[in-house]
Amino acid sequence: MKIAVINSGSSSIKFKLFLMPSGEVLAQMIVEKIAEHTSKITLRFKNETKELHQHIANHHEGLKFINSTLKELHIVEHFSSLDAIAHRVVHGGDFFQNATLIDGAAIQKIKEFIPLAPLHNPSNLEGILVTLKKAPNVPQIAVFDTAFHATMPREAYLYALPLSLYEKHKIRRYGFHGTSHAYVMQEVAKEMGKSQKALNIITLHLGGGSSACAIKAGKSIDTSMGFTPLEGLMMGTRSGDIDPAIILYLQRELGFSIEQVDKLLNKESGLLGVCGEIDVREIQKKDDEHARTAIEMMARRAKKYIGAYIALLGRVDAIALTAGIGENSSLMREKILQDLELLGIELDKEANSQNSKKISKPNSKIEVFVVKTDEELQMAREASVLVANSKGHL
What we know:
This protein folds into two domains: 2-144, Nucleotidyltransferase, domain 5 (2-Layer Sandwich); 195-375, ATPase, nucleotide binding domain (Nucleotidyltransferase, domain 5, 2-Layer Sandwich), CATH 3.30.420.40. The chain contains 15 helices and 13 strands. By secondary structure, it is α/β, with parallel strands linked by helices. The chain is globular and about 60 Å long.
């Protein structure tokens, strides 16, 4: 079964073609700087990487270019010959609780949730609409970043605000990075040789955007991101948790506009705001107070969420760290996990320094894993199951 995974951003298209159920990657392409004078196209095929530069006017042209390239390389004749196409959609509101086959009703619902994700859902939807025209008879599936967290209980997703704000305006915690958290959970279960339903796991997706998730018996019961991806952990340019009254102070006392506050919290805060740098690799090289403080702050926030989620879960079998920082920064992992022996976490520093898959000591009550996330593969998995079930077979 050949399944394409498409992630349409505002000025980019990420495309990956899988052979399922093996998960083999047949080809992948990234089209960047769409609508700019010169677009950048990166193609990876048969262990080779090629980079092209030409003008791509819009998403339609971008997908047309991908389609013609696949044909030239004799990978697939046309999008219409694929078995399924999976699309990343950032926000599914409180309606979509699983990946879903795309039809008119689903498109309408995705449109309804645009106010909740104005920077993402419109471009996600654009990719869907263009692809539907190119391959109208191919099953197309929407996979939502929010769906994995739909299992959170009411007391977890509600804010302590007047209930009418949720009932009328859907202001609640939704959570994001769900596809990554789901993938990591499955990989940890495989490593431990246990059923997902038998495990309680804490997952930490630490990248440019970061989030924590408490997973009980295979289901998300709490996550650090909330109504938007701004809440929770300290991130590359996002503040994470702050006192909400700071926003009022900025506006009332310092004259900040709504737009300025938005830019400050989403694009000028986090690691960048504290030390002037986003890339943890570069921050670790610096020998100054601001850099050290930024590292300590990020680790401290993550450590606090681990403690909170251990309290919520009661019993924790494993902790998994993933994404760019979680997978590659042994220093950040050590800062987060050190001095937690009383909670049953014993870090193996040597295994951690070697970026081993398992970085806890053999006698650690809670096992700790480093997992390379693969959101695209998870999307392909969910799509293949949905398509197979819709056809009445596995």
